Amino acid sequence: EDAGNCLATVLYPKKKSPPVVSIKCSHTKDQKEIQEEDNRLYQRIRHQSKPITGTNIPDSYGNIEPALEPVWALAVAGSSSIMWEKSTETLGYFLAQVKSVRQWV
To answer: Hey, which family's this protein in (predicted)?
Structure first.
């Protein structure tokens, strides 16, 4: 879901210290509305009768099945931590595709 627009600035010091990150967001939804949407997604995933499974998200053409869009969103959010941690001024990481996923029940 679109929660707003954000601008992040990352400054890489010349010495071996972590980058300085500044993030500014202008929200298009209020916090309560965002939390309600998050809770609806959580409840939907939690109460499914069979586990979510998928492969190659998105496919080779960039398509994502509508039922797997929440899986992709969660993968992007989860991978962002690794991207921030591992990226440098000259090396960046991007999530291209989730090879396979299976929900634990």
So the answer is: Belongs to the protease inhibitor I47 (latexin) family.
